[in-house]
Fold:
Amino acid sequence: MVMISAFKNIRWEKVGEEILDIFFPRFCFGCKKEGVYICKDCELFLTENNLVCPICGEPSYSGKTDPDCSTKYTLDGLVSVWDYEAVIKKAIVSIKAENHYHAAEKLIERALANIILEQSRFVDFLEFLLDEGVEITFVPAHKKGKPSNLYQIEEKNHAEEIAKKLANMPKKNKEVVSLLEKVKETKKQSDLNREERLKNVKDAFEVKREKLPEKLILVDDVFTTGATMRECANKLKRGGVKKVWGFTLARTV
Ligand SMILES: [Zn+2]
Ligand SMILES: [Zn+2]
Structure:
């Protein structure tokens, strides 16, 4: 419990949100009931993710990569907060489709509060997060200069938004650094099989800085097969990073 003091109070509700509610009425992502983003009934279907080794997918109590799976270029661990299903899946899909930032923010706060309340499970990750030498980066969603929407507006990067919230969590704010660049357009990973996914993300990212931090947290919204995160970790480690933990809101089970 000692670690709680290292984090700012994460408040669910802030003064003044009523004003926001007038402009952005909240509906439950699960059942569309008005009032909150996740209602009490749908909350029952939130499933905490059993942490796994990010390489083989076998259970790992704290999310650390198995010694047998660990190489110089692999992720050192992974924390995903929820199973990517039910109300969480609906929430993440609709936040992405509608660029609903307020809802995204609430979901991220909720995820972070979860991991602080469950310190024993997340202890390795939290210790890493509190390490002053650790910096935070994210998986870029789009190829630079190629907006994917009709209006030619560069979209916000959801992984970056999650990274910013995470960086803001310890008392001493961390910097979010943009280290990766997407250099190849990729197809939607969820439309592909395992083999196609590996091919799809192979060499899709490049490290855009020469000097890299020694320790990093790599953030994305969802961990599906992990092909994207493993590819990014590989590139970062080949660029000189010694230790990389992954963090996602949810993981496909
Ligand atoms: Zn509901
Ligand atoms: Zn493993």
